[in-house]
Design brief:
This protein folds into two domains: 1-32, no CATH class; 35-73, no CATH class. The protein is elongated and about 40 Å long. It has helices spanning 8-15, 20-29, 35-44, 50-56, 58-64, 68-73. With 79 residues, the protein is an all-alpha fold.
Length: 79
């Protein structure tokens, strides 16, 4: 398991009560992947299954729109 150490800049932003959207955008700009994106990468590598990614990221799917359309764009067959 790997942990992501929050860079000092973002720690300061948290203390300044920056919005979750600002923090998310900054993390993405710094190269962070979402759990769903990394899950689909693992599906393509043959390490996990589409069903497992959908199960684990079901909350993200509802909020972030990461669904079957995105899986299709990544070349992952869900059925």
């Amino acid at each position: 398991m790997s942990l992501w150490k929050l860079p000092t800049k973002y720690e300061e932003w948290c203390l300044q009560n920056r919005s979750a959207d600002e923090l998310r955008e900054a993390a993405r700009a710094g190269g962070m992947r979402t759990l769903a994106e990394d899950g689909w990468r693992l599906v393509r590598a043959g390490i996990t299954t589409p069903a497992e990614v959908l199960r684990v990221t079901k909350d993200q799917n509802m909020v972030g729109g990461f669904d079957e359309d995105v899986a299709a764009k990544l070349g992952v067959r869900l059925r």
